Amino acid sequence: MKLFDVYPLYDVEPVNAYNSIIIDKNGVEYLDLYGGHAVISIGHSHPHYIKKIKEQVEKIGFYSNAVQNRLQSKLAEKLGKLSGYPDYQLFLCNSGAEANENALKLASFYTGKSRVVAFKNGFHGRTSAAVAATDNTKINSPLNQQQDVTFLPLNQIELVKAELKKGDVCAVIIEPIQGVGGLDEGTTIFFQQLESLCKEFGVVLILDEVQSGYGRSGKFFAHQFHEITPDIISIAKGMGNGFPVGGIIIAPHIEPNYGMLGTTFGGNHLACAAALSVLEVIETENLIDNARITGEYFSSQVNDLPGVKKIKGKGLMLGLEFDFEVSELRKKLIYEKHIFTGGAMNKNVLRILPSLTIGKREIDLFIKALQEVLVIEKDVVI
């Protein structure tokens, strides 16, 4: 049997990693400024993370959600405290796509309606409803396209109002900072008006914090910059530092019923141990503050780089928008400078999504390498 060939792969095979360093099979070290799509939140192989997973697997690694699991309640309590949502409810699953799938399903249950409003260049996952709410026709099959989704541009609130007035919308789903789309975001006025409209028309407001959550923006959740309180928040990537875990945080006015949602693996003992260890490290090492401070430092250092049009994002969820496509630049950074970065649907955006533990020294190494790749005798190479 061979692998189903759906991933274009770089010719690098990591076999070891620590903090922000990846080591390949040949012993070459790489600076990781991408974290496997913003998954590595507390650094590769963090000792507290390893310790907690080892301790848990020696006790019990898994049983189904048909029995009590005290770790789930402990995780919910800790997450509520650190995120600022102590009165909300937590449903655990396995991934960001599954989180958004359950968020949309729950919104439809709650309202009795089915149409979804989403936003251009948004990305919410690859499962049925989540991918239907993703603005990318290449990954939407005819099966997915049966979903009723309306895509609107960011920051045009009158268009949103016109759709909600039709009375058939169950949910508005939006990323506070677009990830795959290229780091675009709504204004504070837009988000606040969006919250008001959803309340006015009885529509569930879903904030997709799968990539932007868990301190990456410099606040626990990026939507907190706008002082809004959504009905449902979806979480995943940085939640388990590489262990598959996701979830949705649900407002108290949305009441559960037995069988409404379900999962086999979601919230298992190992997943909860991993997720708890991440929260403990975020808290004890002040990583949200570090994300804000290091992100500000990064932004202060890249203004004069050749070809850079704009710095996008917040904290350590950043994008450099160039006046050229960055695919060749990313290859040069990987193969010549041994630095991992990310791309986006916007082909001119270089995404920077490092561990929240990263510091100024690593940023300086990246800036120096980027300058060397971009500038040869004052000419842009790309």
Low-confidence stretches: none
Shape: globular
How many strand units? 16
Whole-number tally of structural domains: 2
Task: Quickly list its features.
4-stranded mixed sheet; 382 residues; Aspartate Aminotransferase, domain 2; 7-stranded mixed sheet; Aspartate Aminotransferase, domain 1; 18% strand; alpha/beta; 11 helices
Describe this structure as you would to a colleague.
With 382 residues, the chain is of the alpha/beta class. It has two domains: 14-46 and 286-380, Alpha-Beta Complex (Aspartate Aminotransferase, domain 1); 47-284, Aspartate Aminotransferase, domain 2 (3-Layer(aba) Sandwich), CATH 3.40.640.10. It has helices spanning 35-38, 47-57, 70-83, 96-111, 128-132, 157-164, 188-201, 269-284, 287-301, 327-335, 360-374; strands at 14-18, 21-24, 29-32, 89-93, 115-119, 149-152, 169-174, 204-208, 232-235, 246-250, 308-314, 317-322, 339-340, 349-352, 375-376, 379-380. Strands 4-10-9-8-7-5-6 form a seven-stranded mixed sheet, with helices on both faces. Strands 1-2-3-13 form a four-stranded mixed sheet. Helix 6 runs parallel beside helix 7 and helix 9 (287-301) packs parallel to helix 11. The chain starts with 13 loop residues before the first strand and ends with a strand.
